[in-house]
């Protein structure tokens, strides 16, 4: 796969060059920022990325001495928000907070994108990892992942799973699960997070972040089966991972971070990165992250660039294996 995807290998010459560039912000006494910073969010108001953006923006406003203003630009695949930041002036006054799907899934999923996922951005910092929880309608008899796999394989094509849309992280996560287990299920895409539909029995199961399902789980309207990350979530320590439940190596999460347009000066990237790191250290940030089921990642630019490159390779294979390459 890597040999067929030169844009993946090119990432080392683009993202990492920016990530490794020396930082002069502290020593030069640069005036940046001198005006408000716009933080574009590729998600609707109230979504997990939006909540994270508002948490860190508040602390960044204090540490930088300028307002950090959150602007939501939701769209399919996060394309509108990502394009707008790619085309913004590389001066540090426009950044993008997103999960990695627009950079890692979209380049293989879409025949053409209005932005360059490899060369159009400079990583700033990875902030948090949001596990996805596999939950089912209470009428589904399976109570463990092993039982769920057996149930689905006993009735090929009968059972359903819902996602926020074709090519979404949740969709690809299910496709990886299906490929590894041999399950045959019907995908039902929705325009919004389908917690309601699975509660209503329109679909059998979903993968979702904790905030959108926690109330339903507490009210016994959804059953938790497993968590998608390689380690158990601290919020649900008794809940096993999918990996330990019969699918070794399975590890999927919504990785949320900040990127800037390509060409943003290294000293500006450093200033932004330091402000984000400071925001992540604040007790109220950590407490809120814990409530939301988010694991603080705090990965600086160089490591974030490497992580993006690795995830690009991984999801290029998964999207292609699912027959979705160039489908949008």
Core attributes:
D-Maltodextrin-Binding Protein, domain 2; Tripartite-type tricarboxylate transporter receptor subunit TctC; 19% strand; 11 strands; five-stranded mixed sheet; alpha/beta
Explain this structure to me?
This protein is of the alpha/beta class. It folds into two domains: 2-129 and 255-321, Bordetella uptake gene, domain 1 (D-Maltodextrin-Binding Protein, domain 2, 3-Layer(aba) Sandwich); 133-245, 3-Layer(aba) Sandwich (D-Maltodextrin-Binding Protein, domain 2). Helix content is 41%, strand content 19%. It contains 14 helices and eleven strands. The strands form two sheets. Strands 2-1-3-10-4-11 form a six-stranded mixed sheet, with helices on both faces. The longest helix has 21 residues, at 301-321. Belongs to the UPF0065 (bug) family.
Instruction: Spell the H/E element sequence.
Output: HHHEHEHEHHEEHEHEHEHEEHHEH
Could you tell me the number of beta strands?
11
Alpha-beta content class = alpha/beta
Give the helix tally. Answer: 14
Task: Estimate the global geometry from the Cα principal axes.
Answer: globular
Could you give a short account of the major beta sheet? 6 strands, mixed
Mean pLDDT: 90
CATH superfamily of the largest domain: Bordetella uptake gene, domain 1
| Main sheet: strand order | 2-1-3-10-4-11
Distance between the termini: 20 Å
Q: Assembly type of the shown chains? A: single chain
Task: Tell me the strand percentage band.
Answer: 15-25%
CATH top level class name of the largest domain: Alpha Beta
From the alpha-carbon coordinates, what is the Rg to the nearest angstrom? 20 Å
User: In the CATH classification, which architecture of the largest domain applies?
Assistant: 3-Layer(aba) Sandwich
Query: Considering DSSP H and I runs of 4 or more, what fraction of the residues is helical?
Result: 40-55%
Organism: Pigmentiphaga litoralis
Family: Belongs to the UPF0065 (bug) family.
Keywords: Receptor, Signal
Protein name: Tripartite-type tricarboxylate transporter receptor subunit TctC
